[in-house]
Amino acid sequence: xxxxxxxxxxxxxxxxxxxxxxxxxxxxxxxxxxxxxxxxxxxxxxxxxxxxxxxxxxxxxxxxxxxxxxxxxxxxxxxxxxxxxxxxxxxxxxxxxxxxxxxxxxxxxxxxxxxxxxxxxxxxxxxxxxxxxxxxxxxxxxxxxxxxxxxxxxxxxxxxxxxxxxxxxxxxxxxxxxxxxxxxxxxxxxxxxxxxxx
Length: 198
Fold this sequence. Notes:
Blueprint: E1 14-20, E2 37-42, E3 47-51, E4 55-57, E5 67-69, E6 74-82, H1 86-92, E7 101-105, E8 108-112, E9 124-130, E10 147-163, E11 171-178, E12 192-195
């Protein structure tokens, strides 16, 4: 019913994968594999946004702007990831998964994560899909078909907030910020949004 009014574009949770910066995008009809590692999924709202306001140029002969330019721009994905392991949590903090150390605490086997994130964040490629499986991925605005966001290079940004509530699942709010990758084709330096259209 995703292509029938008033149910246009019904969407559910998203799932996210990361890989080394610059890793090639997975085909829309294929499951992420190889170096792509699942980070987690959402249990609520998620969004993506274009960043970069226009600057207006005026002259002495008119009261309105004559021209606009965009001196800065960017692209971000905002999400709340749920049910994270410490390895996935390390990724959302732009740390290497190897930051998690195994150990013991008394008779218990443990894993630990340092709370200090460090000066230089790890870069990742990001893949975001609407739905855990391709068959249930309904990100496309053209029907109940798959879609994905691919960012070739970026970092988990902002100040992540871990949330715990009595009635909900533990989650962490975070933002993935695309970095300019000039190894990509012109216009795709921040990545691409791709959906099935027919």
